[in-house]
Amino acid sequence: MTKDDAIVRPVRGKNSPQLGDYAVMAASESDLRMFCGKMNLQKDRFIKLFMSRLYVDDGQTENFALVGPFIGAPYAAMILETLIVWGARKILFFGWCGAVSPDVKIGDIIIPTGAIIDEGTSRHYKKGENFCVRPQGHITEKIKEALNQRGICFQTGLIWSTDAVYRETCERVKYHQKKDALAVDMELSAVFTVGSFREVEVGGVLIVSDEISTCKQVAGFSRQCFKKSRADVCEAISSMCLKKKI
Q1: Which are the contacts of 1, defined by CB distance < 8 A and separation ≥ 6?
Q2: How far apart are CA 4 and CA 98, in angstroms?
Q3: Beta 52-56 vs 64-68: how paired, if at all?
């Protein structure tokens, strides 16, 4: 474990649950509800975690946990830190992203192989000027395997993570296109960074909700292809958790 010299640290309280190895972080409220249904979790039985809800598998061994919603790198890092100190060791992040590459379209599924750091949280965990952070452990390969088995198409590549959703300028988009970024989100680089710092396995899956590759936003939140991709991936991830294959 990396030496932790922080004054304030994540802690286990006397009433904190003892989580199993597996946890899913669902960024959006709608996906959180979808996961509850597919994982047979009761929506009104949860533990309050900051401003989010934590659901724990009803099995006696507490095999997996589900938490959300959340937004932004600092808050995602707080949640992940708590999951880790409560026992989680294999964490899968599920969220949405905006297409930066012209080859990426609404409804596409991305399994990130790395995240470009353009948010402030990661810099407090990483020394030096690291440009990119990678997912930890074998989760990425297991996600690919699960989607391949279901015939679900996906892309792999870099994600650009930024704090400033309303400052995704044309200049910044073109810059990150040159860095081969497929899409942009707000949390992934921080999630990968915390996972690396705490030496736990962390992977991610993102669904493209809109496009900004032409320097104009094309929204796809209501499109059927976006909804179908979310449902397909939620089904695959839920199956992984229930079968303990994360």
Answers
A1: 198, 199
A2: 34
A3: antiparallel
Question: Encoding tokens for residue 85?
Answer: 């100190």
How are beta strands 90-99 and 109-118 bridged, if at all? unpaired
Coil vs helix vs strand at 20: coil
- Around Cβ 173, how many Cβ atoms within 10 Å? 20
Give the integer Cα–Cα distance in Å for 82 and 182.
30
The answer to whether 38 and 64 are in contact (CB under 8 A) is no
Contact by Cβ (8 Å): 106, 225: yes
Strands 22-26 and 90-99: parallel
d(CA 3, CA 230) in angstroms, rounded, equals 38
Q: Which CATH superfamily is domain 22-242 in?
A: Nucleoside phosphorylase domain (3.40.50.1580)
Q: How far apart are CA 125 and CA 4, in angstroms?
A: 10
Residue 50 carries which DSSP code?
T
**pLDDT exceeds cutoff 90 at 166:** yes
Residue 61, pLDDT above cutoff 60? no
Model confidence pTM above 0.85: yes
Q: What pLDDT digit, counting tens, does each position of 27-45 carry?
A: 999 999 999 999 999 999 9
Q: With contact defined as beta carbons under 8 Å apart, do 94 and 25 qualify? A: yes
Pick from 193, 226, 211: nearest CA to 30: 226
